[in-house]
């Protein structure tokens, strides 16, 4: 199909194109997305159209693009005391331009600081002066001499201490896991300028793959997401017929699943190895590992997908909500009125939240029955309600503002925070946490803590819970979030020796294994670090268990404490650990027992005496002629008849054993 498209051109055009390709082939990478999209897609939408060429890896650029190019810092970058700069500016004729980098801070950005200046390029790590102490900082990058005279780039940066940078890329991150990052980046052309493209970055090898060069203009990937899959990605791209296409990249091939005038975030989902999406009014489920595809409903609207492959959808024939699992669809509620829609649904696999059209009610189905949570409400699908690990959260408009309510896995319902204006739910954690916005600020609340919401000191972008940890996609950065409530309780640290609390005596044998177990209050911010020193030596940050050998000293004074993410520091603790390196030793004495007429020795009385100068002897053992070991409790007799072999050894109170035969 793709090859036939080239037959439309005349020979002279083909020769010109071939010459142009020969000229630029050495510097222009070829991507699967450069293949033309069939014109017939405007009239026909086949279920699956596959590109025949694989997507190659990105080639290195061999020329500096014209114009102002800012590779670092990225929009929304976070920094503490230093920031990395990677900026180039050249005219279209290749002449270097003057570059100025200025920071604006203070009230209404009235204060300024010239951070760096250069000609053609600035590649350095710049130090931030201590006078700039606000969280939000505006950076302006000015390049002079580029048509129409100068070019200005404005970047907003964040200095908040409530998170740590996990990863950064040049672009906007859409999805990530432990191995890959899916993001929109830039492909710098030989003749200048940069195109927005969709890329996958391997976090281990740092190798990038371009998936698409045809992204929709002004596309909001926070509302209409792109997903990583085990073999690639699922995303939206622009088609030549002015439609948008739902594309799957897998093992180097692109597949067009469906096309539409516009896509919504609920139209497709990816969780684990399962992908659910809509195609020409039907709902489908695909295992992206083995490629097996199933029709869930001939006529339906997709709402949600769980990791075990359960699909939540509305059947557009009867307007009711269904779950699909293992080839079978099951009604969620028992409502039979054909005029009532059940829609806008979310599930965690056990409980389901959905809207009922006749009463504008938010309903929760707990696996047995449907319960009304709120009536006469209008809840946006993305920000009005959420469910995670049995915890449900929803907004409820009240006379003086908006309340955020939560329902626990046990069915207990309560209001966790209140906003005096419009509130939106941003994320729900698996332990009863909820992040919401009020008056443009982000707040953290906890069902279990039972306290008022407190502000999170950062502009956190798109919030995500992964493996019970909170992350944010902020521009080109992945951030690990440390929320900072009004936490005044320090953590508590326990020292363990060989996996247990220290013994009263403090004595251990060489190689004692020491570890720290630090815990913060359940409603607190979590443990930041544990620090310790031994015998008043250098202070160290604990990173894992360590051994005490007893080679240089027998006495170890361990001082330690922990600090939480809100800066609360535990009081110093001290534990004394002593190492007994001395091995016990045992002496034997034989006393002959004579016959009645004193003519021969009929047996010997054996006496064993053991010694240990440190922790003392715990037990002495003996055996005769290689028999079973017995615990020595006092003198015993050995018969004189035949050859006799006596083995014995002692053990001290920390487990040191005297050398002995096995």
UniProtKB/TrEMBL annotation:
InterPro entries: Ig-like_OmpL47-like. Keywords: Signal. Gene3D superfamilies: 3.30.1920.20. It comes from the Bacteria. Residues 1-32 form the signal peptide. This is Uncharacterized protein. The lineage of its organism: Bacteria, Bacillati, Bacillota, Bacilli, Bacillales.
